[in-house]
Amino acid sequence: MTMTQNAPSSPRVVAESRLIAGPEPDVRLHLLNKRRHDLHRFSAERTLVMMHGATFSSASLFDVAVADMSFMDVLAQAGYDVWAVDARGYGGSSRPPEMSRAPEDGSPLVTARTALDDFSTAVDFICRSRGVVSVNVLGMSWGATIAGAFASAAGARLEKRLEKLILVTPLWLSKERLRIDAGGPLGAYRIVSPRAFEAVWRGAAPEHARHDLIPDGWFETWEKATLATDPDSPHPRTIRAPSGAVQDVRVHWTADDPFYDPGTIACPVLVLAAEWDVDVRFDVAQDLFVRLERASYKRLVVIGQGTHMILMERNRRQAFDAVIGFLEERVAAAN
Fold this sequence. Notes:
single chain, alpha/beta, Rossmann fold, nine-stranded mixed β-sheet
């Protein structure tokens, strides 16, 4: 599906939605793509592939238009051929058969290892379709696990598969329980109410800042877009989210057993954290940053007065500018 979008005094943005073959015969992967209508020649430096987090799909995290523009719109307006991937079980990608049954009838679905296979397949498709040999990669939260593992594998094999890596509020090792894991047995998937999530989202900010954290009307727009990503959820006004990401927390991030080695990542890296993020605390992001020992250069940016969901909050433009500025710069490794 292809469509164009207009913003006042800005070039038109072309939006496409594609369903491609996954790494296994019964898997289909949903890709979102946005670019300026006048972008006809593609390059590795201006191709960006993004991966969503543990609960919400790419459309929900990266492509909800508030104040007339989504994150993907802003990136496209800046001249990037920007893609967002849904791992199986999320958004428009195919859902494992177990997700049509009661969650307690199955084991946790879609761990980071499975999502990494899906993401790698999507990157290969994008490289073939655009005629590029490498891309920039952005991952948010659990998606940063996938992005980091993708970059780590490339660095360990000395492959030129990516230009730059951006890790937004990235999951990493924690000595404390992470909020996403409430404890108890894990089913195949979780039932998530965006309306109930609002209190959790705002609750990360100091009490005096909770109302203004999300400008008026933004949450309702986000909620509507998020519910639309799973119209077949068996419970009204909810979405389903695979439980594999929570299992990852138990097996890797709170068990001192990292899923990937950041010390093998060789490309430039931006780590983007938020002041009020209680899901991935600043000390967690900082520890990850320190371990990026082989990165040709690296940067840690902390956005003030923001939470784990900084890309959908009033200070989101600071995060957008940090990402675009990092992608735009051409800094020699010797610098």
